Structures are given as C-alpha cells and as structure tokens.
Amino acid sequence: MKKLLVACLFFALPVFAQSNSQWTLDSSTLTYHITHPLHQVAGTSHAARGKGICHDGQCDFLIAAPVKSFDSGDSNRDLHMIQVTRGAEFPIVTVRFHLPESATNAPTISCDLDIQFAGQTAHYRNITFQQTIQGAEHHIKGTIPAIVSDFKITPPSFFTVPIKNEMPIDVDLTWHSS
C-alpha cells in the first residue's frame, strides 16, 4: 500500500507542479497623440503597472495607469486634460485583454482590448503588436487606434476649434514571465 501511494505521488507530482505562469510589467511607455489644426500634442506616461496570469492555455492581462501620470510638457494642458477626461472622478485608465498562452511566444500578437477611461469602456478588436523575446523578457510595441468619442469626451478646443477625434496611443511595454 505504501509503495502504491508513493507511485501515485510520483506520477501525480508533475500535475501538481504545473503552476500558472505569471507575467509582470517591468517598464512601460504609453503615449497618446492628439491633433489640432494649429499643433500636435503627445502626452507620455511611464507609470503603468500590469499583471498577467495564464491558466489552462488562456492568459488574462490587466494594465493600469494613473490619468495624471501623462505628461505633455505643458502643465496647464495636462491639468485641462485631467479635467476634460474627468480624471478626478476616474483617476485610472485600464486595459484588459486575453490571449491564448501560445500567443505569448509569437513575434506578432493580435488581441481584443477593453479600455476603461473617463468612466467609459471602449472595445478595440484585432489590435496587432510586435513582440521581441529575450529569455524571460518580452518587449511589446504597437499602436491602439483610440478615438476621443469612444470615451464620450467632449473634444477640447483651441481658439474654438476642437481637436481631431483620433487619439492613437503608442504602446511600448516590457514584460517578464515567471
């Protein structure tokens, strides 16, 4: 009986030893771009944090960044951006997405994103990112084709002319798996 128990534990050990793989966001650069007929603005944040958990072949990721962490180089413009996007009421922008675990090792990743910003959730389908892998480090780059109206934000204006609706977000992330 003792040998049978030891044999069962020996064969079951690999099943119990399989743990969920986990991902941690090590560094981030998120840059939004807005365009007005008189000028273009880019606001950048390096404050995003993120986690990912893979289980049964499916990975779930969450990235979050404080709205106030985006810097356009003009503190008045940044304060106005926080006001327009209701950053005091909704201080965090989040991005959620799911991937098959096999996609975490592909050079190109295509996924659906759910972005919560300014109290609204926008869904973006089949967004493509490029991935470079070095050991446990995964470097992801791409652009999210966000638009202002998806978040029900009244476009800010300059000299009574509003910004364009397009607000692409450049993404540059470094993740590591464990």
Structure, described:
The chain has 178 residues and is mainly beta. It has one domain: Beta Barrel (Lipocalin). Helices cover 15% and strands 53% of the residues. It has 2 helices and 11 strands. Strand 7 and strand 8 form a beta hairpin. The chain is elongated and about 50 Å long.
In short:
With 178 residues, the protein is mainly beta. 15% of the residues lie in helices and 53% in strands.
Layout: helices, strands, pairs:
Elements: H1 2-17, E1 21-36, E2 39-45, E3 49-55, E4 58-66, H2 75-84, E5 92-100, E6 108-117, E7 120-134, E8 137-144, E9 157-158, E10 161-162, E11 169-177
Signal peptide: 1-17
Organism: Edaphobacter acidisoli
InterPro entries: TTHA0802/YceI-like_sf
**Approximate strand percentage:** over 45%
The CATH class is identified as Mainly Beta
Main β sheet profile = 8 strands, antiparallel, barrel
Q: Can you tell me the CATH topology?
A: Lipocalin
Poorly predicted ranges:
1-18
Structural class of the helix and strand makeup?
Answer: mainly beta
What is the number of E strands? 11
Measured between the Cα atoms of the first and last residue, the distance is 37 Å
The strands making up the biggest β-sheet line up spatially as 1-3-4-5-6-7-8-11
* Element order: H for helix, E for strand: HEEEEHEEEEEEE
Tally of individual helices: 2
Domain count: the total is 1
Radius of gyration: 21 Å
**CATH architecture group name:** Beta Barrel
